[in-house]
Amino acid sequence: MGVNQWLALVVSSVVPVVQLVRRLATERRLNGPTLFTLSLTACSAAVTLLTGDPRLLLARESYFTAILGLWMLGSVPTRRPFVYTATVRLLPEATARKWEAKGEGTPRFRRAMRVMTGAWSTAFLLDSAARVVMAYSLPVDLVPVLSSALLVAMLVVVVRLGKVYGKRRLA
Q1: Is residue 93 scored above 70 in pLDDT?
Q2: How far apart are CA 51 and CA 48, in angstroms?
Q3: In terms of pLDDT, which residue wins out, 105 or 43?
Q4: Domain regions of the chain by residue span
Q5: What span, in angstroms and rounded, lies between the C-alpha atoms of 149 and 125?
């Protein structure tokens, strides 16, 4: 549309920030994900304002996936790793109770949850590294599309593999 790449990328960040600020204003409280997203956006905007580098702005998406991957990795040795915690919240109440019982009393179940969480963590860390490589090696106009495609492909692969592994180990 005739604007430079840096400005187009900055403008594309405005909509999510406005949505986050609106949510903050209506809910009148800060929650972790909102604060996390606002802080990442503010930090990346400040850095890119200082440098004017569109590639740095493109690489900022890797921050989120890296932090998420590291957080998941940190949860692996706990009694309730990420995959367990996230999945239990989505299950019907009766199934969630069964999972909680298995989580407390079945070492094989806990190990499967740790392995699956490790796989998710690895996928997000690889995604983060790939985003940085793409941001600094591919044409700037191509990176947002490929970055989205990479995330979708990674999620499809990890979910499929997780289902296959889970059916074998959690049956």
Answers
A1: yes
A2: 5
A3: 105
A4: 1-52, 54-170
A5: 16
**pTM, entire model:** 0.71
* CB burial readout 95-124, b (16+ within 10 A) else e: eeeebeebbeeeeebbebbbbbbbbbbebb
Distance from C-alpha of 100 to C-alpha of 120, rounded to nearest angstrom = 21
Percentage of residues of the chain with pLDDT beyond 90: 32
Tokens representing 152?
């979708």
Q: What is the CA radius of gyration of the chain?
A: 19
Q: How far is CA 11 from CA 34, 109, 155, in A?
A: 19, 46, 27
d(CA 98, CA 68): 27
Residue range 141-160: average pLDDT? Answer: 91
- Gap between the Cα atoms of 155 and 171, Å rounded: 23
**What pLDDT is recorded for position 102?**
87
Q: Are 154 and 126 in contact (CB under 8 A)?
A: yes
Question: If you search the block for the tokens 């999972």, which residue do you land on?
Answer: 99
What's the CA gap between 41 and 43, in Å, rounded? 6
d(CA 59, CA 44): 9
Instruction: Using alpha carbons, select from 137, 150, 136, 141 the residue that is nearest to residue 56.
Output: 136
* 75 contacts 81 by C-beta, under 8 angstroms: yes
Q: DSSP character for 171?
A: -
